[in-house]
Records
---
Amino acid sequence: MKTEVKPPENIVLIGFMGSGKSTLGRELQHMLGYELIDMDQEIERQQGRKIKEIFSESGEATFREMETTLLRELMAHGAEKRIISTGGGVVKSEANRVLLKQMGYVVWLRAPERIILERTSRNRDRPLLDQDDPLQMIRELLAEREPLYAGASHLQVDTGGLDVHELASGILECARYFFSNPQSHA
Ligand code: S3P
């Protein structure tokens, strides 16, 4: 008899800084009771330093390697059901884009530029935007990354019009359909 290997049923949130991944991740965790892995927080915990320090002391390339290592560790856990909230630059690496899709249902959260600017200017924790003209940087990075988010995701969600509970409910419906329908994994 053929043994079916079940693909992992994680819900993976991707999207630009300030697109609402952490807030939505917490809402999904609340609704589903799944473990929530916030990749930035997990890397900070493993490293014992803040992302800002990792960037300034070790450089962005090293941080990207840490992201890939963490994705591989999460994959090694097999078919657990978790919510994984990623850092906005995780899609820069092709290896990561492939891993993300193998991990489960990948949801790309989108927010308008002005919301991203407003949310990210509340603190200076994001080294890539800690500069004189963050809006210009947001525009450049969005132009570079939007095609990557598109290619790495199964679902694209505009976060502007709905509250977080409505968004999470809609995403859950889509995820249930995806996981119940093996053809959709192609
Ligand atoms: C980054 C996004 C950040 C964090 C790091 C780099 C990026 O995560 O991983 O500052 O390159 O877009 P958030 O998207 O959670 O802010």
---
Amino acid sequence: MDFKIVADSSADIKELKEVPFDMAPLSIIADNKEFVDDKKLDIKEMCDFLNTFHGKTSTSCPNTDSYLRAFGDAKYIFCITISAALSGSYSSAVTAKEIYEKRFPDRKVYVINSLSTGGEMKLIIEKLSSLILEGKDYEEIKKEIEEYRENTTLIFMLSSLKRLANNGRVSKLTAKTAGMLSIRIVGKASSEGTLDLTDKCRGEKKALLTIFENMTDLGYKGGKVRISHCFNERGAESLKNIILTAFPESDVEVYPTLGLCSYYAENGGMILGFEK
Ligand code: X90
């Protein structure tokens, strides 16, 4: 096949059936220990380590070489990254594209800044995959994927904003409002690809109902939903049930976050991408 899909590891996807796929891993760093968010990473072990580690931790985006490795030798590549407003991943991918296209003038890379992460990236990847399997050409796929993206969005629920605040992705002041036992912060991806915190809920049950309300306010009508969670299968399944009760025909998948999203969402967190 001439096509390949590449995504950074924030998409929470290790492999894809039917269409060639590779991921460019981000890394989680604690002192001199580095957790590379690839297929081999033991997420439970990393989370257990980080939850008892008191030193400084941070993350880093894939470098250009890691994108070039993921591109392999494909003719047409669709490469999707976490929001450029949150990470340098997009800019590494763009540099890799420039090098790749210069080196191989008959090959093409289309880089997509998802303005999002997690489940919304997964939806875009699933759509790319079906367009490729339908036999659409490179230019048609570019056009159709941009149209599709207008109808997807992302909501998240977090019980702590500690790591997001420590790494400068939300303000420390905002982070203080979370972190209280039983408080759940609900938010969405803004149109600029930043975190927009919308609700502070007492208890997870209330937070899940708020998520569903926000979904319908944003235009959810029973389309696909992709929910990744950090050790909160129960919460994610409850949300799935709320959605299925209202929209019994909808296609809802629940699965665990990989390393990068586990680090930022922290235990109990969940991220959901859905079609509006
Ligand atoms: O380059 C890097 O070091 C990666 C930095 C990533 C920072 C934020 C990741 C957040 C993941 C939290 C909820 C999702 C919010 C998405 C809004 C666009 C998970």
